[in-house]
């Protein structure tokens, strides 16, 4: 119980048993089914899924742009369902949000855009101006203070949107596919900015994306959403090294085709390298030691937070004694091992 | 081409000024009534920020009803109403009443159309910042649709000008009266054509000014 209380204290967003059903004339669509999720303060929490999986709906349930059909959403310990319209609007000022299409006010200058949430929060005009300068420095766009959005590039627009979202000192920043409309280079600079904001301003960041690279680049935690449900969630390290569900495996290796080893001769094992083990020539050593060749079916490495994560599928020789010997050898090494029959 | 005496020229000048007076004042009043109506239509719509089904239906029925009556018939039909408001049913000022009654619902539709064009994403962003529906309407939807609203007002203005000329048939003032009195009743075709040319020029000028202002207010392509 004491343990539970501690967890709840650190959580900024807690979602319990959340479902969302959209009613259309002829049918009902379950956009989200029984979502349970805890996001802690200071996390960079990624939510990844294919398009149509329900991830955009989920992030909108966090600030009640979409009202869930069932379940509970707690923001900083406060139940959003129990709030009046005015309380909810005040709470939204503590939750910044940025979007794929930036959603800037096209008839307002950069400065006026950033002032907008402060006008809503009824902050002094003079304080607004000072805050705009501060924010533009954070997003490195001070020279564009009087520009209109139409005069900015996509990356610059998103920087303005980020500055605007931070204007009222929110505790959380929701990012809905914030980099999906940007080229790879701009994406990286925006992600670096988000990471910097997370560290420097201690703002919890929630990122919705369909790109695994975004998760790899900045997230500490990830939830995989598939078919309106959370397939699995945990730290990025955990999910990348041990994807348990099919949907997680598909996302970790988006280009991988399904390899089916049923009926093929020889055992197939999946070897997961983590941290230091990737620097040792484990496979070569094994081949030299057992004096038999292995067939590498698949190999991949990813660099997550400075650590190398790799995995490899190898086909072992048909001879059982030989393959057992190899398995035993691998078990003595600092790698993880499992026999597999198919692989995505 | 005959040269006109100074009296005829003065008549044209007065007619033009009267037409401008009727048009501009009617446009102003049409917006005073039509703008809030258009905003209410957007706000109370089924998919609006504050749906009120009955109010939306009532406004829609009134707007459709008034818009489906041909202007000339409306003009005659509301003569008693015009008399109670301005005391007479003849002259330029009296024409403003039916012009506003006919144009306000038209303006409401134009405003509704313009506000509908505002990007839903921007409205969503404003919601995410905790803005109230009224603030979103006044601070986001109106300013964001300003160029479109101004184009709409130029259209409204020129349409009202066209209606005002029609009012010449039933005792209204301005260039319409001149065209009917001289061109229709006295067969002085030259004078009628002059009024036609003057009307075309006035429409062109109003249209140009409206479009120029609309364009310069638009920050989307600078």
Written account of the structure:
The complex is a heterodimer of chains A (344) and B (222). Chain A has 344 residues and is an alpha/beta fold. In chain A, 36% of the residues lie in helices and 30% in strands. Chain A contains 12 helices and 16 strands. Chain A has helices at 2-10, 55-62, 85-92, 110-120, 125-138, 154-166, 184-201, 212-218, 236-241, 246-252, 282-290, 320-332, and strands at 11-23, 28-40, 44-48, 70-75, 78-79, 95-98, 172-176, 204-209, 221-226, 229-235, 259-260, 268-274, 295-304, 307-315, 335-339, 342-343. In chain A, the strands form 4 sheets. Chain A has a 6-stranded mixed sheet, with helices on both faces. In chain A, strands 2-1-4-5 form a 4-stranded antiparallel sheet. In chain A, helix 4 (110-120) packs parallel to helix 6 (154-166). The longest helix of chain A is centred in the middle third of the chain and has 18 residues, at 184-201. The radius of gyration of chain A is 24 Å and the shape is elongated. The two termini of chain A are 40 Å apart. The model of chain A is unreliable at 1-7 (pLDDT under 50). In chain B, helix 5 (92-116) packs antiparallel against helix 8 (146-166). Chain B has helices spanning 6-44, 53-68, 71-77, 79-86, 92-116, 120-128, 133-144, 146-166, 174-185, 189-217. Helix content of chain B is 80%, strand content 0%. Chain B starts with 5 loop residues before the first helix and ends in a 5-residue tail after the last helix. Chain B is built from 10 helices and no strands. Chain B has 222 residues and is mainly α. Chain B has a single domain (6-221), classed as MetI-like (MetI-like fold), CATH 1.10.3720. At the A-B interface, helix 3, strand 6 and helix 4 of A face helix 6 and helix 7 of B.
